[in-house]
Amino acid sequence: xxxxxxxxxxxxxxxxxxxxxxxxxxxxxxxxxxxxxxxxxxxxxxxxxxxxxxxxxxxxxxxxxxxxxxxxxxxxxxxxxxxxxxxxxxxxxxxxxxxxxxxxxxxxxxxxxxxxxxxxxxxxxxxxxxxxxxxxxxxxxxxxxxxxxxxxxxxxxxxxxxxxxxxxxxxxxxxxxxxxxxxxxxxxxxxxxxxxxxxxxxxxxxxxxxxxxxxxxxxxxxxxxxxxxxxxxxxxxxxxxxxxxxxxxxxxxxxxxxxxxxxxxxxxxxxxxxxxxxxxxxxxxxxxxxxxxxxxxxxxxxxxxxxxxxxxxxxxxxxxxxxxxxxxxxxxxxxxxxxxxxxxxxxxxxxxxxxxxxxxxxxxxxxxxxxxxxxxxxxxxxxxxxxxxxxxxxxxxxxxxxxxxxxxxxxxxxxxxxxxxxxxxxxxxxxxxxxxxxxxxxxxxxxxxxxxxxxxxxxxxxxxxxxxxxxxxxxxxxxxxxxxxxxxxxxxxxxxxxxxxxxxxxxxxxxxxxxxxxxxxxxxxxxxxxxxxxxxxxxxxxxxxxxxxxxxxxxxxxxxxxxxxxxxxxxxxxxxxxxxxxxxxxxxxxxxxxxxxxxxxxxxxxxxxxxxxxxxxxxxxxxxxxxxxxxxxxxxxxxxxxxxxxxxxxxxxxxxxxxxxxxxxxxxxxxxxxxxxxxxxxxxxxxxxxxxxxxxxxxxxxxxxxxxxxxxxxxxxxxxxxxxxxxxxxxxxxxxxxxxxxxxxxxxxxxxxxxxxxxxxxxxxxxxxxxxxxxxxxxxxxxxxxxxxxxxxxxxxxxxxxxxxxxxxxxxxxxxxxxxxxxxxxxxxxxxxxxxxxxxxxxxxxxxxxxxxxxxxxxxxxxxxxxxxxxxxxxxxxxxxxxxxxxxxxxxxxxxxxxxxxxxxxxxxxxxxxxxxxxxxxxxxxxxxxxxxxxxxxxxxxxxxxxxxxxxxxxxxxxxxxxxxxxxxxxxxxxxxxxxxxxxxxxxxxxxxxxxxxxxxxxxxxxxxxxxxxxxxxxxxxxxxxxxxxxxxxxxxxxxxxxxxxxxxxxxxxx
Length: 1055
Fold this sequence. Notes:
It is a single chain. By secondary structure, this protein is α+β, with helices and mostly antiparallel strands. It has 8 domains: 2-139, Beta-Lactamase; 157-283, PAS domain (Beta-Lactamase, 2-Layer Sandwich); 286-393, Beta-Lactamase (2-Layer Sandwich); 413-522, 2-Layer Sandwich (Beta-Lactamase), CATH 3.30.450.20; 558-661, Beta-Lactamase (2-Layer Sandwich), CATH 3.30.450; 675-733; 755-912, Histidine kinase-like ATPase, C-terminal domain (Heat Shock Protein 90, 2-Layer Sandwich), CATH 3.30.565.10; 938-1054, Rossmann fold, CATH 3.40.50. 42% of the residues lie in helices and 26% in strands. The protein has a 5-stranded antiparallel sheet, with helices on both faces. A hairpin with a 4-residue loop joins β11 and β12 (299-302). The protein is extended. It starts with a helix and ends with a helix.
């Protein structure tokens, strides 16, 4: 199957270059169902093999989902989608499963699925190839069942079972040989001589003659008794019985039998055992179960088959109630009543009935027969048999369905059935014949001549003679004749075929049974065909002329073409191939030459050519590109394509190779790739220039404010003019804070801000911000909230989400200068298929909608670009939506904008749901006026930036902490390794050499419980804090305020 699939898996180049050949190959593979799917599992191609296998035509299935072919059980388990996913991950996926046909039946299919890719390697769909393996699957199950039952029977018996090959005289024994006679299987020589040598000397010659006589005769069974030497030296009285297996010529080739130890039994017992064995073999062969019931004491004996049919284990006790429990509840009372009638002295004594069992998943039907025996009017015994008739009833049901299908087929084919009694002349017509000849059923008696009465007068004598001949047994009692019939009412003439055969029933009565089929359309088609045959010679001449044209094209084409048969003998070569072969290998190839013989002097090339042609002859369609030197000494690129070659019947006759110079095409592709790379570099540089220009513009403005304010403060201090210094300090601080906010927006846009992702109740967050939002929006804008009652927790950073929501509301406010409606909504959304940048799964969606001015499509396309803004200069940085987009992507979500000019804008923020209970959102508390002082704790500060390190140390000393410092991780290690008391490590993340996170791990080796505060101006690998920080670690992002630093340190030391 894998080789076949490989042969049907064309390269992208092949598909684009030879679609007609590909379709021809797919349609020729009628033993395989080949179908193509789009990425959404809708069927886009359906070959003739699929029509044949499933029963649906291509018109039925094109555009239908693949699930239509799967069983309800597999659809419930999402098997089609799983199979497509596995094909994407592994390249191809194989499976065996039950599939559905159009008529509702199932078949066992072996198949594979693989993704289809275009020339760019993009997945454009899938291809699925199937083959019906139902017969093999059922045969394997049946073989397995037979083998298991045979193995169980061999283990269950105490008789030594043997299997003797009469041609090789080899004997196999079962394990009972050890139990019955003491010989281990490893001690027994597997030859007939060993067995003869262990027979008592007085019996040996007789047994040899007895066995030879049975083998030489036509007898199916050999049986005899003798004394057999046990391993302990005693002799056992043995009854040996074997079944002789013969070939088609009656020659005995094998004998299988069993040695029964009869040492403790005498003649009568021996005869009884022999009788019981024969009965057991007979019932086993007939698959009959036997039972013996004693009503007086309730004793019930079931044989193995009875237990199997009723689902009772071999060691489980059985009673009459066990039997009733095995009967289907709907049948139980009826069966019990029948048994009780048999046990009634006044009853019939014998009974037979069918019933259903409750054992197993599928319904099983059994027939039970029994006879009661009485003594002095009292039932003493009830014995009988049980037979599984499930298949018989199913066969009867299938026969009924087949008759129904036949009736439907006859109706669909406009075929009627008739039956003539040759003695009485009684004629039976079915409804379709009445319709064809326009005679009502009540009017049939008006036509004493039956069918002949409606036959055209010119054909009547011919039809009468043919039917009479069939009744007399001539022509093997068959009749088939084409004639005309005349409609009774309209007088229209139609052509029919009468086909029948002579039948003699059980009473010896002769009947003629047959069908009448309306072939008027076929007759008219035959007439038309005869007209067409008048132009046959002209058409043949045109075809020959066309073939000659194709031969000329083949011979004169620049493409080098050759074909070989399965033995590598050339079937055809064109002039271009022959010239190139002669130039390279010095010999002129012709039809009939063996290609490998021509390359005998070039063993390396011979092996390579043989390998390629062998792949093609195995059914693989492929192409290779190689670089060769042409006749002018120039290196050229050639593409060689290989494919199967079939005759007009579809039979494989060889393989085909075409070789084309693709040098210019490959050069053009290389130039195109180079141009595309230059274009991408140009676009990248343009984007970088735009980004750096925007950053430079905003930062220069902010730095101007900071530097100007500091210069003014220095001038006032030098001039001892301290009035107004606070105002300049506030101006510098405000500019610095705006610069910090710009950095945060840039980090959010670049998805490099540090996120504290936790389960968050979005409804609680919106409710907590509602008052702030109302003050921000103003009185002319109405704020509405529609929050889902069953909202899932979202996996997000609450602080960043608050900033994003506030930013969206401010944008909405600015889009409604004359007032309007602003609506905030929350809802749960589950995506079943990938959409844009979102994976399938559950999401929480936060929506902000306004009734403002809206945006045209060309503006919507740019809103996420950095520094792009529609606001006047000074009213926006152009990083708001870029920050939100980066924040959403960083947490695994997405932002969708829908805007229409004059109608408003809606922004939908998708956030992954979180399975845990959401944490409480901390309320924003005002920064205390007094810094949180220390109580003499020891802190190690590691910071490579002198200015930052000096400020931190100055603040910590001022707050009462004992501080040690280091400019890099290497300088901090001696302090960490020493016995110096240390309560907290404060370290920058971006240290030279060993970074802060690595230093934290090193510190934990010496001080496992040391608390660590990491400070950073750029998150880097710490974009998600929970993934970056370890236990007992916190993070503070630069720039931070003195108050924030003091509070964080106090919180960690007291926590």
